[in-house]
Structures are given as C-alpha cells and as structure tokens.
Amino acid sequence: MGYVDFLSSIHKSTKRDYxxxxxxxxxxxxxxxxxxxxxxxxxxxxxxxxxxxxxxxRWQKVAKAMAQHYGLKPGDRILDVGCGxxxxxxxxxxxxxxxxxxxxxISSYAIEHAKEEVKPYLIQGxxxxxxxxxxxxxxxxxxxxxxxxxxxxxMSALKxxxxxSRKHKYICVESYRNEEEKVNLMYWQLTCEMFCxxxxxxxxxxxxxxxxxxxxxxFE
Length: 220
Description:
Mean pLDDT: 97
Strand content: 15-25%
Number of strands: 6
Number of domains: 1
Helix content: 25-40%
CATH superfamily: Vaccinia Virus protein VP39
Order of helices and strands: HHHHHEHEHEEHEHHE
Low-confidence stretches: none
CATH class: Alpha Beta
Radius of gyration: 17 Å
Largest sheet: 6 strands, parallel
Structural class: alpha/beta
Shape: globular
C-alpha cells in the first residue's frame, strides 16, 4: 500500500469560492438534491453538483499516468467503482487500445448519460456489494467516491475492492490536514459522509485489509 498522486493537478485546476457555496443557495437543500444522484447533481446548476458533467478529455492524462505506473497492456481488465459517466474508462481505451473496461455507479442517471463508447460496459450498483467474482480485474480504481459512503458501507466497499482485484488497486478520497481545509471541505462538499484526516483514512484501509495504493485531495 503506497501513496501515489494522479489527481491533484485536475483537482487544483478548479477555482472554488467556498463561502459562496454556503451563502448563495441553502446548503441542506443543495445536498438533498445532490444525493439523488440525478440531473441536478450531474448536469443541473453548479450549486447542486457539477454544473454540467461533460467529456473534455481532461482525464486522459490520468489514464496515461495510471497505465504507465501499473504497466497496463491490451487484454488487461479495469474496474472503476464510482465511474460516473465513464469518461476515465473511455480514456483508458484510448491510451491502451485493447484494454477491457467495466464500471459501476450508484447513479442510474450517470449510466444512462454515459459516453456511448463505454456505456455497454457500465452498470448501476453499490460499491458495498460488487457484482463481480474474486480476482477478476488487473486494476480496480475508485476516485472521489468512497467518502460518500457511511462507515459500515465504506468497510464493505474496501473489502470488495480488495476481493475483485487480482493485482493493482487505487483509491482517491477527500481529506483534510488542518482546520482550514476541514472547513473548506465541509463548505464545498454536497455528498460526503466520511470526514477523515489522512491518518484516519489509513486506519480504515488497514482495518479493511486494503493493500492497494491511495491518494487524497484537499480543499486548500
């Protein structure tokens, strides 16, 4: 298990007004709408989610970095737990032609509006109970997803990711290192249920027997 940062450059490219997040629209209502994982969260107003989650190719550099780091090759199988509209999986197919991709997301809306090229390989489901056999995938990833689970489902999801992977695993979750980052995280988030420091996250990983790589994003 090791720390590998694939995501901070993308995360830091977004400008955030943390105070406006809690003053321009009722935060509780925004969270209620976001947690439906429907239009409001993906393609509605920025106040209730992404403000339009459209493919722009920004994830291709992440796919390329992961492919190089994990030595992915044609015929390898990848699972994305919390795949959204499948943009990263699509980019994997462009970076490593011949790779096999699968994706799972809690949002039926995301699956219905996924990138057409990978849509047939995506299913609606819960990270706490993956509908796959043991050791099915060469790489299992979960990016900005597991912090949205309650602790008991987080434990199950970590164990499931470990179970279905035969080789590599990578998780990225939200975290905080100081009071300023904690407040910014609480102001910005709409769907987070697990608010943990890096040390707490690593404790959860150990408790679940998770042996893969990980990284954290911070709201600085």
